[in-house]
Amino acid sequence: MSFYPPVKVGLLGLGTVGSGVTRVLSRNAGEISRRAGREILITHAAARNLDTTTAHTAGMKLTGEALDVVNDPEVSIIVELMGGYEPARSLVLQALANGKHVVTANKALIAKHGNEIFATAQATGMMVGFEAAVAGGIPIIKAIREGLAGNRIEWVAGIINGTANFILSEMRDKGRDFPEVLAEAQALGYAEADPTFDVEGIDAAHKLTILASIAFGIPLQFDRVYIEGIRHITREDVAYAEELGYRIKHLGIACCNEHGAQLRVHPTLIPKQQLLASVNGVMNAVLVQADALGQSLYYGAGAGAEPTASAVVADIIDVVRTLTADPDNRVPHLAFQPDALSDLPVLPMTEVKTAYYLRLQAQDRPGVLAEVTRILADRDISIEALVQKEPAPGASDVPIILLTYEVQERWMNEAITAIEALDSISAPVARIRLEHLGFD
């Protein structure tokens, strides 16, 4: 065992994840010390509600002021588990300026302010660990940044929000409507009282921003991500997709080619036989396509106290291992050397090519399909499959389901506008993108 003194850690936040970190560090102290080469102790912690925390706080200096921990000279590593943009950003920057390494689970902070934070860390010779910011306990950051360092990453596609995945899984398995399943997710604690970040795709976009940056060596660009949520998905869409051999998943997709990068979060039809199609409930999974390895899937719990704490503690161990190392020889925060990040443009969604699922409500009369197919043909949009369902009892219109081959989004936007302008179309066109992810 090392003769180095214990490393003292300060926690900012003693909520669900903070409590998990104290439990994991306490329970596995012996193995963690053997791996890190020295003892790791949480000696300081800050939280707003110290009276209600379930964390193991014995022997810690507790305070309600996070800045007290950040400025304490005894602390070597700050673990930020507060969430949100501020005061997390200011506290992290102050910690780095104070010569303290930082570990965070805050995906919003990294996605929005990571470029500034990593530049500050570089200038001060400090490390920032953020494995827990994406997919909870799944070590996807380390896998891409280190395990796949010899590969060119072609694309990444992931189920990276457990709430949205739970809702879509329940809609498919039990034929339930979105509002009903959302209410259950909130009752079970899978969704917040305000579920906007989860069901509108913002949480997934934060995580995709980080994945794209480490996969392609581009700066973090959250403001360039196309974001679409799942509120508009109906149980009929879920059922029709199943009939056609697909499942609807809320995916974060990042692709890279010579024209630019694509960063997009949206509901997506994928083939049933695709690995991601079998990921259900609140679980997360990330599929990576690399030129040398091919496809690899990373699956596990994307949230929760101890799964997330697993990633936080792993980052703390990484930091401790490098405390005596040359700062210039550390693994770069965003996988590529800071002066080697690419200025590859992020393409607007209108330039992205995908296949599509379209659901139309059309009058049940001759000639309607001819009008629709003419509009598509005029824009070189080819139809892969077409299904006309039976009208509901007493209804005067019928659902028409179309699957198209790949087309640039701008042309599909034009086609949908033209289709919706037809007198025979009685409702807005439902559009869900379709990806085969390596399947023909």
Can you give the mean pLDDT?
92
Count every beta strand, where a strand is a DSSP E run of 2 or more residues.
Answer: 17
Multimeric state:
single chain
Please give the domain count.
Answer: 3
Q: Note the gap between the termini.
A: 54 Å
- Helical segment count: 14
The fold-level CATH name of the largest domain is Rossmann fold
CATH superfamily of the largest domain: NAD(P)-binding Rossmann-like Domain
Helix content percent band: 25-40%
The Rg value, from CA coordinates, equals: 24 Å
Structure classification: alpha/beta
Approximately what portion of the residues adopt beta-strand conformation?
A: 15-25%
- Major sheet size, sense and barrel closure: 11 strands, mixed
Envelope shape:
elongated
